[in-house]
Amino acid sequence: MLARAARGTGALLLRGSVEASGRAPRRASSGLPRNTVVLFVPQQEAWVVERMGRFHRILEPGLNILIPVLDRIRYVQSLKEIVINVPEQSAVTLDNVTLQIDGVLYLRIMDPYKASYGVEDPEYAVTQLAQTTMRSELGKLSLDKVFRERESLNASIVDAINQAADCWGIRCLRYEIKDIHVPPRVKESMQMQVEAERRKRATVLESEGTRESAINVAEGKKQAQILASEAEKAEQINQAAGEASAVLAKAKAKAEAIRILAAALTQHNGDAAASLTVAEQYVSAFSKLAKDSNTILLPSNPGDVTSMVAQAMGVYGALTKAPVPGAQDSVSSGSSRDVQGSDASLDEEFDRVKLS
C-alpha cells in the first residue's frame, strides 16, 4: 500500500516538475529542501538524509527518490571551496605590542557526515579556531618577525586548524592575513628605525667605498713600484751585459793588438819601431804635465828624450831576454843599484819642485 502511494505521489510530482520546466524543488521555511519523493541534487552538494530521525544516507548529485514521511533531508552541505572572513581582533606579540589583525580563511568540506554531526556550526567553529590560533601564533613572534615571517605564520595557522578540524570533516586549504594595524606610536618608532637603518647603510656603503678606493690606490702604487723596480733591474742587467761585452771586446782588441805588436817586433827593424813608439808616447805624456795638478814629479833630465828611450828599451830588453845562470845575483844587485839611483834622483827632483 505504501509502495502504491509512493508511486502515485512520485508520478504526480514528476508531472509537476515537468510542467514547471525543471525548476528546483521547493525548500521548507528552515531553508532545507522538502521531501517531494523525487529530488534532483545539484552538483557539488551533499544532502544528508535521516530516516525516522536517524542517519540514513547522503544523496549524490542527480536524481534521487525518497520515501515520504519516513525520510527527511536534515543537512545540506556544499562541497565547493568556502571563503570566510575572519573578523578583526587584537593580539599581543612577544615584545608586548598590541596589534589589530584580520584575515581570510579558505576551507572545504571533505566529509559531509562529520561536518553535519561532528560540530553544530562548522563555519563558526573554524572561524573561532582561526582567531584563537592566530593569537597564540602571534604571541610567539616579535613585531619585526610578524612582518618578515608572514608566510610561515599563515602556514602555522593552517596546520593548527587542520589538526583540530579533522574530526569535523573540514580541511583548511590556506589562510591569508589581510591587514595588520599597528598603534600610532609604534608606527612612528618603526619609521624612525627604518630611517636610522637607511642612514646606517648609507654610512657603511660610503666607508666601504672609501676603503675600496684606498685599497685600489695602494695596490696601484704597489704595482707601479714593482714595475719600476723590475724596469730598473732590467736596465742594470742590460747595462752590465753591455759593459761586459764592451770589456770583452776591448780585451779581445787589446790581445789582438799585442799579438800584432809582438809579430811586428820580431821582424827586421822592430827595435827601431819600438823606440819610435816609446819616444812618441813620452812626448805626448810630457805635454800633459801640470794640467790636472800643480804638484808634479819630474826626472833629473826631462828634456833628454834619448836617455829616456834608451832606458825604456833597456827595460824591455831585460824583460825579453832569458835569464843567464849565475848572473842572477849580479842582475839583481845591478837592478837594486839602478833602483836606488833612480829613487835618489826622484827625491832630488821632488825637493827641487817643492823649493820652486
Automatic annotation (TrEMBL):
Protein's recorded name: Stomatin-like protein 2, mitochondrial
UniProt keywords, alphabetically: Mitochondrion
Origin organism lineage: Eukaryota, Metazoa, Chordata, Craniata, Vertebrata
Listed CDD domains: SPFH_paraslipin
Any Pfam family: Band_7_C
Annotated Gene Ontology cellular component terms: actin cytoskeleton; immunological synapse; membrane raft; mitochondrial inner membrane; mitochondrial intermembrane space
Ranges of residues in domain Band: 36-194
Family: Belongs to the band 7/mec-2 family.
